[in-house]
Amino acid sequence: MTRKHLAAAAAAALLLPLAGCGGDAGAQDDGTVTVTVGYQSKTINTVTAGTLLRSLGYFERELGELGRREGRTYKVKWQDYATGAPITAQMMAGKVDIGSMGDFPLLINAARGKQMKAPTRLVSVTGYNLRGGLNTIVTRPDSPLRSLSDLRGKRVSTSVGSAADGTLIRALQRAGIDAGKDIRKLNQQPAVGASALQSGGADALSQFVAWPGLLVFQGRAKPLYDGAALDLPTFHGVTVRERFGDQRREVVEAFLKAQIAAGGYLHHHPLEAARRVATATGLPPEVVYLYNGAGGVASFDPTLKPRLVSALKKDVPVLRSAKLIGPVDVDGFVDDSFIKRAFGSGYAKALDSTANPAPVSGTDPLTHTDVNDPATASEALTGKGSVPFATPDSLLRYLADHRVAAAYVPDAATGNRWFADKSTWVLDAGHLRPFTTPDGAAKWAARHPGSRTVSYQAALKEAKR
Fold first, then answer.
1. What's the pLDDT at 28?
2. pLDDT grade, residue 464 (50/70/90)?
3. What would the CATH number be for the domain defined by 3-129+234-352?
4. Cβ-proximal residues to 111 (8 Å cutoff; 6+ apart), any chain
5. What keywords is this UniProt entry annotated with (predicted)?
6. In which element (H, E) is residue 64 found?
7. Band of the pLDDT at 29, cuts 50, 70, 90?
């Protein structure tokens, strides 16, 4: 299948199925209102509107209170999908009322809604990363590929129209590579792409959380390109059918109140939240915690921040050039009236803040200093819980003498969190600096005379000196 046909197939898939449009916003003959929520259980930066929210039962609780006030019964039907495309298809068919998906799929959602005369609205944000660190390009552990320039003529798997596809397109553009001509793009679901990478059917895989972290944690991949290098915001958000929002405004607000409560649970109990998501999805808790834990790659704040809306507008030309959408009125698609009411008086303050609501904090057990700088704060997971460290150097000294379930460090260039033992390290002026990719480490070393890259094992030995 040619690239042109792949793009056409991706666009066509979003239109199916279109039969059976819902009638009265989920109302049944007996007066019971069923609310259908489409979510992506393994896309773990949507957990506050999906997996975690479902496990906590907060939406059902809010609807129970609403039902008692109204004298009616509400039921929730949860539908799990691998990507945002089928959620959009079901929303166009009137079969999903509320859905969560990434920034590129959200734009496709808006475009399809306009095209099918079934408009949708973006009503909140789930997880976001202001630098774009939610997406990563990985290769096999034994791959000779070292940088984006090595992808010329190679087969790269991604989900066309996804946030990860957007990262791939932008990263290649910056490297002077034409994604439509210089690589062979494979349009595959994340699990299929992961299998293709293992079998040799794909040379690289560009995907969204938690796939890159999972494959690297399992030793089945290594990072080639960190999306945070783009320094462009990426996020996932909640979209609702406009008709449903108009008819059931109180239900949408109940959903967002539940989402806010789920975010509060994640912020106050990050490790417990990661374990809940791990139990529900089968993902290792160490991988979930990489993204959703304290100081994680994803920051959970439901407010519709201007920087994120601005980033969404910049995504439109990328999708249009790929012929996946036509014009999109982003300002008309974004509707903050629901989240403002659900959030209450603290909305304006939260809107202005871009600090991670759940940073790594505490006291470093080795240096006895406060852990308060996100640029260096590191963390280890042990059988007893999490242990904070003020710097990667301190964490390495601890790891040299202790076995842990996982350890996390912020990339010295991007601040993006990654596994300590999967990072590439640079010894620079007496300090050990971690990098998500070998290319990132090489670029740092080239700019800092006297520094050199070292392996993780070498970094452990160096830390003990």
1. 60
2. confident
3. 3.40.190.10
4. 319, 325, 326, 328
5. Signal
6. helix 58-70
7. low
Give which of 407, 388, 465, 405 is closest to 432, Cα–Cα: 465
CA–CA separation, 171 vs 225, rounded Å?
Answer: 8
Domain-wise residue ranges, the chain: 3-129+234-352, 135-230, 362-463
Which of 18-27, 34-43, 164-173 is predicted least confidently?
Answer: 18-27
**Same CATH fold assignment for domains 3-129+234-352 and 135-230:** yes
Q: How far apart are CA 404 and CA 394, in angstroms?
A: 15
Question: What's the CATH code, domain 135-230?
Answer: 3.40.190.10
Please count the helices (runs of H) and the strands (runs of E) in the chain: 19, 20
Contact 298, 127 (CB under 8 A): yes
As a whole number, mean pLDDT of residues 334-349 equals 97
> Residues 6 or more apart from 381 whose CB is under 8 A from it?
271, 286, 289, 387, 404, 405, 406, 407
Residue 305: half-sphere exposure toward Cβ, Cα within 13 Å? 24
Sheet of strand 424-428, all strands in order from the earlier edge strand to the far edge: 431-435, 424-428, 452-454
Say if CB 290 and CB 213 are below 8 A apart.
yes
How far is residue 392's CA from residue 378's CA, in Å, rounded to a whole number?
A: 6
d(Cα 50, Cα 447) in Å, to the nearest integer? 43
C-alpha to C-alpha distance for 435 and 278, rounded to whole angstroms: 26
What type of residue is 348? Answer: A
Provide the pairing of β-strand 155-158 with 222-226. Answer: unpaired
Nearest-5° angle of CA 436, CA 440, CA 442? 125
Cα torsion 435, 309, 59, 356: sign:
positive
Residues in a beta bridge with 408: 379, 419
Before 210, cis peptide (omega within 30)?
yes
Banded model confidence at residue 205, pLDDT cuts 50, 70, 90: very high
State how far the Cα of 2 lies from the Cα of 142, in Å rounded to an integer.
29
When pLDDT is cut at 50, 70 and 90, the band that residue 27 belongs to is low
pLDDT of residue 465: 83
Q: Strand, helix or coil at 398? A: helix
User: How confident is the prediction for the chain on average, in pLDDT?
Assistant: 93
Beta carbons within 10 angstroms of residue 294's beta carbon = 24
pLDDT tens profile 116-128: 999 999 999 999 9
Burial 384-420 (b: 16+ CB within 10 A, else e): eebbbbbbbbbbbbbbeeeebebbbbbbbbbbbbbbb
Q: Which strand ranges, in their side-by-side order, compose the sheet holding 204-208?
A: 184-187, 155-158, 204-208, 135-139, 222-226
